[in-house]
Amino acid sequence: MNSIERCENLVKVIYDKFDASHDFQHIQRVRRNAHIISGQEGNVRNDLIELAVLLHDISDVKYSGTEGKKQETAIINQLELSPLDRKRIVEIIESVSFNGGNEKEATSIEAKIVRDADRLDAMGAIGIARTFAFGGARGRNLYDWSETARLNMSEKEYHTKDTSSVTHFYEKLLLLKDLMVTKTGKKLALQRHEYMLAFIDQLKIETSEEY
């Protein structure tokens, strides 16, 4: 069993405990996105990309709190990797999260690919589905048109204040198109962005008092 197969076995049991917005199906979709992008980006370390994708939500504070980072480290240490590759994987993972616009810079091409692959899964039809799945799991309102989206917030504010699911579109999803960093990611994001705009327009119609 190679490192990727071992890592997949170790992380799957963890993701199976998460809600549908961040389960192992999410990981599989991000993997496919990363494969598509990496195929257009030239010479990259696909093994590092695969491992970072598999691990990137293990330490998500929304699910694992302060223990997530320990779990991530424990899994990485079980893989047959050089110290340098372990360091590279951690750096990729740390640059993926949006964190209310407070993300760390993605410096390597592998980090840029994983970030774009993950953000594509937060857009389009699947991004809409995931947003409402997460909101439902947290008991959030579907929409609240009176809410004002927070476009400047700290990482703590982003993770602690529960706004409606639709408000999250304005605080994150609709911003992602302009935050993609690879050429392929930017191209793929366009159609998904337009789909979300159309969805919001239709939702406004259906929830209007004049409907």
- Tally of individual domains: 1
CATH architectural designation = Orthogonal Bundle
Q: Helix-strand pattern, N to C?
A: HHHHHHHHHHH
Distance between the ends: 58 Å
* Structural class based on helices, strands and sheet pairing: mainly alpha
Mean pLDDT: 93
CATH topology assignment: Hypothetical protein af1432
Task: Provide a count of the helices.
Answer: 11
Shape: globular
Biggest sheet character: none
The CATH class name reads: Mainly Alpha
Strand content: under 5%
Number of strands: 0
**Low-confidence parts, pLDDT < 50 over ≥5 residues?**
none
Radius of gyration: 17 Å
Helix content: 55-70%
Describe the structure.
There is one protein chain. The protein is mainly alpha-helical and 211 residues long. It has one domain (3-206): Orthogonal Bundle (Hypothetical protein af1432), CATH 1.10.3210.50. The chain contains 11 helices and no strands. The chain is globular.
